[in-house]
Amino acid sequence: MDALAGLLDGPRARGAFLLRMVMEPPWSVRIEDEAPLCLMTMARGEAWVIPGTGEAVRLRPGDVAVARGPAPYTVACAPDAEPSWLIGPGGTCSTLRGEPLSVSMDLGVRTWGNAPDGSATMLVGTYLMGGELTRRLLDALPGLLLLPAEVWNSSLMPLLDEEISRDEPGQSVVLDRLLDLLLIAVLRSWFSRPQAEAPAWYRAMGDPVVGQALRLMQDDPAHPWTVALLATKTGVSRAQLARRFSELVSEPPMSYLTGWRLALAADQLRTTDATIEAVARKVGYSGSFALSAAFKRVRGISPQEHRAQG
Fold first, then answer.
1. Given 53, 77, 122, 270, which residue has the most CB atoms within 10 angstroms?
2. Using alpha carbons only, how large is the chain's radius of gyration in Å?
3. Could you give phi then psi for residue 284, rounded to 5 degrees?
4. What confidence category does residue 286 fall into, taking pLDDT thresholds of 50, 70 and 90?
5. pLDDT of 288 above 90
6. d(CA 144, CA 141)
7. β-strands 85-87, 93-95 pairing
8. Dist CA 133 CA 17 (whole Å)
9. In this structure, are residues 91 and 126 in contact, taking their beta carbons and an 8 Å threshold?
10. Would you give the DSSP letter of residue 92?
11. Which of 204, 254, 263, 189 shows the shortest CA–CA distance to 228?
C-alpha cells in the first residue's frame, strides 16, 4: 500500500455529492457546504474559483481545482461577480435569502443550473465525509489547488462527464469510485510536480528502506511491529532504520505506527458499529483497555467519548 492508497483506502467517498452545473453568465454561487474536499473541472467554457483568502483561479476546459474545506468559497463567471445562489451543507441550494432552488434550477439527473444550454459546464465532486486519515491528507494541501490541463491529463474526465447524469442501479457507487480515482490522479500529479512541497510521509515512500517500512506498517497495522523487526525486514540495522526514518518522516517508527493505528481506530469508531474490543484488535492493540490507554494518552479522550462526538 503506498502513501495515497493508505490515506484513501479508509475514508473513501460514500454517497458523495456529484453534480453537473450548467450556467450562462452572469452567475455566481457561494459554497458554504462545509465539506472537507471538493473537486471541480470544466467540461466546457470557463469559471473562476474565489477562495475566502488568497487569489482567485481561472478554470478552463481540462483544468481541475481542489478546494479544501470547511472554509467557504465562491464559484462564478468572473472574479468580481456578486453571488446570487448559495450551496449549503448536504448540497442544499437556495438564494441568498434562503429561498429553495431545488426545483427551479433542476435540469435533470445530477444536473443543475440557470440555463440548459449554458456556455459553461462544470463537473463537481464533493466528499461529504471526513476522517482522521483524510485529515493527514488535507493538512498536506493548500486551501485551493489548481492543476492546468497542460500539466496533467486524465482519461477519467470524459468518463465522469458521461457517467454523472446516468440514473442506473448502483450508479452512486460507480460515481463514488470514479471520484476516488480522480482524486488519486490529481494528487499524484500535484505531489510529483518539480516545485511541489510534498509532505515528509509522501517523500519518504520513495526511499528504498523507509518506504518499505512505511508500507509494512500501513499494510498490516495489527502486526506486532518493533524497530528490530522492521529493520530485519528492510535489510538494515535497527540504529540505521531508526535514524533514517526519523530524518525522513520527522518522527520515530513506533511513534508513526501509534499515530497510524489510532487514526485507523478513530475512523472505524466513527464509521462502523464494531465494538471497541474489535476495533482495538484490528488495528494492533491487545484489547479495549490497551486501545483506551493509548487513545487517552495521545488524544486526551477515551474511544467512547470520540465515538459519541461523531
1. 122
2. 22
3. 110, 15
4. very high
5. yes
6. 8
7. antiparallel
8. 20
9. yes
10. -
11. 254
